[in-house]
Fold:
Amino acid sequence: MSAMRQKILTWLEQELAAAARIYLRRTRPEIIGITGSAGKTTTKELIACLVAPDKRLRVTKKSLNTPLGLALTVLGLPHPDSLLGWLNLPFSAWLRAYTEPAVDCLVLEYGVDAPGDMAALLKIARPRVAVFVTVLPIPAHMDAEHGQFATPEEVAKEKAELLLALPKDGLAVINADVALVRRSCAKTPARTVTFGSGREALVQAKKVNLAAAGLALSIRLPDRRSLLPIQVPLLGRQFVPAILASIVVARELGVSAEAIAERLARFPGTPGRLQRISGKRQMTLLDDSYNASPGSMVAALDSLVTLPATGRRVAVLGNMNELGAYAKAGHAEVGQAVAEMKPDSLITIGERGQWIAEAAIEHGFSAGKHRHFATPEEAILELPRLLKAKDTVLVKASQNGMRLERLVKVLMKNPADAARLLTRQGRAWDRP
Structure:
């Protein structure tokens, strides 16, 4: 990015942040903030699903969780997709600051890529309720050589600033299953509610089962004598923390347990996050193309081999980016999981995707069941001919340099549904 362009962007961010702060002082909505190295968007959408019938909400669109995206959400502005839109943005922001109607709640994602990012977000909007979903053992944004984090502990510390900034009358919603989350948030001044699967969690998941229809589980709530049975049409056990966190927030906002169960059963999911899509020739696509880290990739593989399938189970896995010094080990971890879970076929894409295959074969996966493509474009051209009728195909990789939703679109039975079902659609993403 040129120096001039960076100056203009910085000025825009400052203008929007100032306008957003005026709007918040004028309207004083309840602010719910969500952070974590995985599950932020699903948690946000689940909270919206549970709370929207009772309150006027405004929610972070897609994953616009940078300072610019946060301010746009607060002001109810769309992300510009044209030069004219960018030019009009300061005027629109200041107009909204003084005229935009109030909402009851803002549900905001707080994403961080580097040290200092959370402080910039908190200057725009400080929540009263904050959720720390999880920190993965090898999270993203670990490229220390390019200004990102050096260790998972640094990631957790940065994200925990959201909960440490809560007021005394606030609520910190914390994943008790992840020691790094518990330790990093220990000094929050707010009241704390923990969630997880262990006994130390105040809100617990019990009897978790993954089937064709999604997750079935029972929830132990502190104000109920009996377990609350829940069914959610999400296709992976990795979504359980997001479900629990959303239930805690919904209860804080007055949603009954019965309404929670009813609304979760209708949750539609989020594009690019392990969504089932009908493919050509009766194939089933498991579209998890939004992004990837070692932990989320292993979790997606678990779904691939656990969910019922009538044909082969095919794992299509590409590069995982922003892992820094953990890159080789992270890809090797996924390769070992492939060898242990034994999908019927492994397709890898990209230079680092090849590392997954090497580790899988080293740990016993058959080399004859593997095929590699150097680029996503090559896979888009060649892979459809290698797949068979009724295959179940998992598609997952990082966003940068991969964008495997383009491959999913080629494999879909109805590509015309891409704008509704796939991530990163629209003018801003027309080119690779």
The chain is about 40% helix and 20% strand. The chain has a mean pLDDT of 95. The longest strand covers residues 203-211. Residues 3-27 form the longest helix (25 residues).
